[in-house]
Amino acid sequence: MFFGEVKTRSSLGGILSSSIEIYKNKKKIKISKGTVINKNLLDLLLLNNVEHINCAKLDNDEIDENSAVHEISKKIITSKKSNIKIQGPKNGRCNLISSVDGIITFEPSQLFSINSVTNDVGIASLKAFSKVKKNQIVASIKAIPFGIKKNYLQNIIKVSRDCFKILPFQKKNIHLIQTTNQNTRAKILEKTLEATKDRLLSCGINKIVEKECSHDFKSICEQLKKSVNEDADIILIFGTSAISDINDIIPKSIIKINGTILRLGMPVEPGNLILLADIVIPKKHISIIGMPGCARSKKENGVDWILWRKLCDLKISLDDINHMGNGGLL
Questions:
Q1: What CA–CA distances, in Å, run from 328 to 270, 300, 301, 303?
Q2: How far apart are CA 110 and CA 117, in angstroms?
Q3: Is-contact 170 101, C-beta < 8 A?
Q4: 10 Å Cβ neighbour count for 29?
Q5: Pairing with 119, which of 36, 194, 223, 295 sits 20 to 30 Å away (CA)?
């Protein structure tokens, strides 16, 4: 690619390297950077006594920036229901827009590989598994120079395929159990309920089943059984204090009704005193989340990272949780 100053008369087909202001019909107009110099523009430049102009001219083995980023955008979203829209390319940039509320999924190692093909194209995205809203920009593909080598483009496309996808939030039957004792204040229960409703409403869940019970083994077991029988998909349980041991009352109650403890604790702060468990009944897995005290606040914490995935029917492995320590809030 040629880049530099040329005589304006020889600039036909060139690409403006910077914006320029000139007059047209006695009115000042701005010609934007990246504009291709056609015959009309060339004549207008000469009419304004612009004798030399800085521009870029592509070689035969190069493709213009807008075409390049658009081609990459079409391949970088998954071929199966990506829930992503492509915004029209402009100034060498193409944005990807979510068409649903949900979470963005991709393999960071794949994105690294894409960005390693050449410095001439940079692809930025939200962090994997971030919560996104409908019509939000989730990724941006940017060409750095005005033209991209065609062989670079093909290599990028090859490693880009099926990278980005948005998993939409699903409607779930959510049960909230709060345990109480003689010291429990009604204000705390109300605050917890409000924060939980707000957290779920942001994910499209506008109805939850609310329950209270005494903070004792028998009462907790009974409420958990009722929620299972009432076809709960996810059970959220707040104890009078955070669960700090696998032999605490809440995990023991879950085990008593044939639940399985998957994990106590996660490398995210706030949110590290979380309990994850499952109850398997015919044709269904019910998730139980023992909520840490920080979840009584509306502020984002580790519980959100778990809930978002659960509401998108995404399986969560122990490795997935261990990876959450990288950028784990604080």
A1: 8, 11, 9, 12
A2: 11
A3: no
A4: 11
A5: 36
8-state DSSP, 127: P
Among 171, 208, 196, smallest CA distance to 310 is for: 171
Question: Tokens 């959100």 appear where?
Answer: 304
Which residue's structure tokens are 């075409």? 67
State residue 251 phi and psi, 5-degree precision.
-60, -35
- Domains (range + CATH), the chain: 2-57 (3.90.105.10), 62-168 (3.90.1170.30), 174-323 (3.40.980.10)
Cα gap 224→245, rounded to integer Å: 19
Q: What is the pTM of this model?
A: 0.91
3-class SS at 192?
A: helix
Alpha-helical segments (H) within the chain: 39-47, 65-76, 108-115, 150-160, 186-201, 217-229, 249-256, 302-311, 318-323
Which tokens go with 259? 């639940």
Kindly state the tokens that stand for 202: 């942001």
Closest CA to 103 of 145, 17, 46, 166: 166
Separation CA 82–CA 246 (nearest Å): 40
